Give the backbone structure.
Amino acid sequence: MINKMIDKIKKTEAPIVVGLDPMLDYVPEHIKKSAYKEFGETMEGAANAIWQFNKGIIDSTYDIIPAVKPQIAMYEQFGVEGVKAYYKTIQYAKEKDLVVIGDVKRGDIASTQEAYAIGHLGKTQVGEKFYYGFDEDFATVNPYMGYDSISPFIDVCKKENKGIFILVKTSNKSSGDFQDLKVNEKYLYEIVGEKVAKWGEEHMGSDYSYVGAVVGATYPEVGKVMRELMPKTFFLVPGYGAQGGKAEDLVNYFSKDGQGAIVNSSRGIIAAYKMEKYSSFGEAGYAEASRQAVLDMKLELNKAISAR
Amino acid sequence: MINKMIDKIKKTEAPIVVGLDPMLDYVPEHIKKSAYKEFGETMEGAANAIWQFNKGIIDSTYDIIPAVKPQIAMYEQFGVEGVKAYYKTIQYAKEKDLVVIGDVKRGDIASTQEAYAIGHLGKTQVGEKFYYGFDEDFATVNPYMGYDSISPFIDVCKKENKGIFILVKTSNKSSGDFQDLKVNEKYLYEIVGEKVAKWGEEHMGSDYSYVGAVVGATYPEVGKVMRELMPKTFFLVPGYGAQGGKAEDLVNYFSKDGQGAIVNSSRGIIAAYKMEKYSSFGEAGYAEASRQAVLDMKLELNKAISAR
């Protein structure tokens, strides 16, 4: 799956993953109205509005991007109905041949983590039969509990030819609270990064490991260090755009071959029509606005990469 | 809610939370058979079997325990149908006036974490209306991303009079990989613990904070240190029984008043009928076996506490 993602990045020339993190505020009125008319002003109505919104974004961008990353929190806030919309979004994106990164950030003890790994990337046995739960292609994983909370995911990844991205240095302001603590002259995120690189040797694709790392766009000096520390580790880079990360800062997250990283943008793409720059698209043109935002981001990233 | 939990612990004299972490292997054949007959050998069938299993355990124990802790991973492995069973289990436990700790271990950046907080403990706005998503009383939270991944939960807890347990030192074997790293003579888990205690001052109940800590039963020396370091922090203690934690080791997790901690047991209670000690109950008596296992655990814990 890491090979497929890299192939798709090369084909689209876009190291971009669109974060499908819909807030109800992002959803145009006409979509909400129609969903509420059919399902009421209910969790079901809200979940349906979000699913329709996502479908519009996917239809408008699937030919120019390699991957999408739905953030499950945005769906869990609508309870069971939201989780249904999460599932539908994944299935639809896969129908369009997009790589799906489930941003679930799960982390638990071995037997429990195995259940998460099976539920999100693998198959569950029921009697004599096997079923996929959510069937994402990649999942994000939290390292706080150590290796036995990682290995069940690696096992399922090997079986299913799928991958994970482990949190190393996150893009948020407080990420330094613990990740930047110094252990014998090294930052905690460096120690985590070294471990991730080592664990990744267990499950290599052609050029990069199936075990990737999350390295936030908002700390570019960290991206540079981590790129050198983890040459075979693919980076999922959140924090571009709305969170403050800029294209020129991201150059060092990529390897010399221009590969090795995929940059996420959520709000900056899916809610582009709300930005002044894309306001001419209007609410009705929200999906076209998101396509234009992808094209602009692609241009910016490629300009920065080729200028280095 | 922390006050309610403490009251219920006093009333039942049982600082025990039953971990509703059902594996299909734990579910007696007659329950599976009947569920598969109605819903097929499908995810729906499996989820229904698990829900029926949980209902039996709750019916058999709700009058002698203060709380249950469903582990959402065990439900997510059955996809959307599993998540429905998770929701039903929560609602049913609350009908029986049990405190529900959602073991979800969520952790993400501020805006995303807010969606989790709202989805699990708070209310989501849809148009003019407000709805609960999953409506647990407490949730477990992962600290790796720092304070801005904690504060959205504290905000919702204040509004809803609910609480959280933040992972400090977990019960699994590899918990030391990162949690035991030394930062200026202190273990990382101590630094996290100190922060948790400090954050907890923001939202105090009568004797303990609404912001609790997860401290595993499998490292008793750690429990002792953390109890002294965090006098106002309530501990959720996993790892008793099947994972290796013993009653006499847990004495120091409690405060001098015998309060301050609630001990989780999952397999040792819900799958008690599979243990030799309780085999006379048979599959048909799985729920009664779980009641007996609770009573035995209560006796052991109270004996150890009063003997110190």
